[in-house]
Design a protein that fits this description.
Order of helices and strands: HEHEEHEE
Distance between the termini: 75 Å
Number of helices: 3
InterPro entries: DUF2500
Largest sheet: 5 strands, antiparallel
Number of strands: 5
Shape: elongated
Mean pLDDT: 86
Protein name: DUF2500 domain-containing protein
Helix content: 25-40%
Keywords: Membrane, Transmembrane, Transmembrane helix
Length: about 120
């Protein structure tokens, strides 16, 4: 039996290192968000986006159409001026927002916590 090609071992090692790096990065971001203080700002909803995420390859879609998963994002601009902030939201939170709404945005680090519209 022949030896496993060196190229295959190198490719496998690169995949393992990349996956490990991404896992550690996600865990660190979650820990940073958990440790961050809850901040609140008066903002205006400046933009909403929903994007279909596809978990199938193009050939699989030709055979059977994919059930699409959606990613929801909203951007908020501080009323007092400053940089626009964009957060990922779940579907329920996303559909409660309307572009132009004013209110108080609550967030921890890069994690959206809530939006309370102004009366």
């Amino acid at each position: 039996m022949s030896k496993i090609p060196l190229f295959f071992i190198i490719v496998l090692a690169i995949i393992v290192v990349a996956a490990s790096f991404r896992f550690v990065q996600q865990r660190r971001e979650k820990a940073d968000n958990d440790a961050a203080p809850l901040l609140q700002k008066r903002v205006v909803v400046s933009n909403k986006r929903e994007k279909a995420l596809n978990d199938r390859r193009s050939r699989q879609q030709q055979v059977t159409p994919a059930g699409t998963t959606m990613r929801y994002e909203a951007s908020f601009k501080p009323e007092s001026g400053g940089l626009e902030m964009t957060f990922r939201l779940d579907e329920k939170q996303y559909h409660q927002l309307t572009v132009g709404d004013k209110g108080v945005l609550s967030y921890k680090g890069s994690r959206f916590e809530g939006f309370d519209p102004a009366p």
